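Lab meeting prep.
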Amino acid sequence: MTMRKGRRSLRKTIGDGASSSKPIRPMGGEEVVARRTNWVPVSGISSMGDLPQEENKVKFVDTEADQLIDGAVNPTGAVSVVTYEGKTYCFASSCSSCKIPLTKAKVLPPNEETGGSDPRISCDFCSATYNVRTGERVEDVGGSGLLGGLVKGLMSAKDKEALPTYDLGERDGKVLINLP
């Protein structure tokens, strides 16, 4: 018996979405042709039915994706998933500004800044607000309280980093995530 070193590329195993006979069906927002085509399986979810369905509630999903795993702060490669008006959005598990998990983040309706169609998410700790579909920083929501105001003051000198967003898709009943 001979054993090969390493493993086959996931990109070759799954395909890039363009060359496969069964295309990946993206979820959330309008169908956009992504620049990145690094679709990998989400091992924390066995089917589309396992995705969180509760509206306007941020839930974490463990992906076990090597690119997202950080032993100190994200050992399972978790991402945040939220459903808003029947569309599912996926983004980083921690706020880009203060690095606090977004478990209690507020999901806000679209406004002029998001084109009137994309919902927003606001960190409950520092009030940093993002477009859920694109991850772009938008005008912060007020009302952060004393501690939040202090944190916001400390973080405001920092660059206004975008919130990483990820495409979720489905092929053959399996959930895939498109990683950078």
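Slide two material, second protein:
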Amino acid sequence: MDAGTISEWKVGEGDTFIAGDSLAEIETDKASIDFEAQDDGVVAKILVEAGSGEIKVGVPILVTVEEEDDVAAFKDFVPPEAEEAAAPAAPEPEPAAPVPTPAPVVEEVVPPPAPEPVAAAVVEPTPEPVVAAAPAPESTAATMVSPGWGNFARVKSPLASTLSASQKKYVELYGSTGQVPL
């Protein structure tokens, strides 16, 4: 919302209100909304009359005070923007005669002397010691079974036989599974 019109005031100058009371009804280009009070107070002065046209967001429309005794202090109050609009505009100053711009000063820039190259010390690489790898153990079915299984893996059981047969059938159809057959 950028601007709105006050369609009606629901309070008058000197009226008291509490938080949540509707103070005015504001119409925008899209909707009509109620302007609700955020705190308790008294209306001291209404700055914008209902139906006076578009009002931009942020323009003061109402002066409120906390105590009813303070209402009289704002009887003749005029917002600062209204005072500036009522004052005659000051005549615009005439442009001054153009000031000639001085010619730019050009300085000769001397680049600093290039640094002399320094030879880097040559470091000969030291050969890495060769470590002989241990020979790979021979692959047997007994060594592929985890020692945690003990003799249980070597025992023929109906379940082990079924799993082994299923694995062999898979290898025949699709190739190796990457595991040693049971």
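Talking points for slide two:
The two ends are 77 Å apart (CA to CA).
The chain is about 15% helix and 20% strand.
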